[in-house]
Amino acid sequence: IMSDKSTNGDVSLSMDDSSNTMRFNERTLELQEVGPDTYLSVDLWRPKGNRGVFGGQVIGQALSAAAKTVESPFRCNSLHCYFLAAGSNTEMIAYEVRRVRQGASYCSRLVVAKQSGRVIFMATVSFQRPEPSVLSHQYVMPEVPPPEDLVSREELIMRGESEGDMFKASEVSTLPVETRPVPSKDKNGLPLNAIWLRSRGDMSELGHCHHQSMLAYASDFALISTALKPFNMYKRESKYKLSMLVSLDHTIWFHEPFRADEWLLYVMESPRTASGRGLAFGRIYNRQGVLVASTAQEGVARGVNKDSDHTTLEFVHSVSKKQDAKL
Prior knowledge:
6 helices, twelve-stranded antiparallel beta sheet, alpha+beta, 16% helix
């Protein structure tokens, strides 16, 4: 089934229009049932400069498709995704769900995404029946400025203060997720990053699965690019130049319920870039400091070094160095 064009780029959206934003959010993840356990996207967005559609949207739609085959009270506890080929925004994606296992406490689904019969993406999704636990620990949420004290991404772009951002402010303002980068005073290129994010509009009438799918969408923002932080390649004086950055896989673990339309802190770090690949991990906290989700992503990271010196850049892990976990 073909589509003339992606709808995301054609939506005129006021940031204060919550009703329009709600419909836009739903359309971002909306699926049409076209057969038994088979669903079709109705909206795809290809960011400027990307080889294909936005990976976060494919992740969110795949999770939505899997959730349609699971009954309450099961909710997603993890999903493991693989990007196999770039998706086109001129043809809607078909998501085929296989019911791998249905247990008393957990159930599993396999989602295969196709365009023109070709597999472009696949994901294994696990769902858990909620259960109490006496065992609980987490990393402390870093101390960062609250989102109310920070500037939005589109404002930074308009000011010319968003290094390496290829998007226009008008394009960013139509995205279903608002982000506010946390400024860093680091001058040494530490592979660390943090942003506040939330879905635009009121999602209070939507089920928890929709909140999970929207966070899955948002979790693809800025994660793999954290692996490029040490190289400062967006600065003119940098000896490094980026030639390719493409996601290979993406994993999310959901720990606690949350609201995607309330501010969440996304803290990211990259322990290693090597062999043409970059690896990054993320932790997502709510305003109360509860770690609600964790992420991991590996991607193709290729670049050019103008110098002959290819020495590995080394950093001390911040958490092991000091336990107060301040950025």
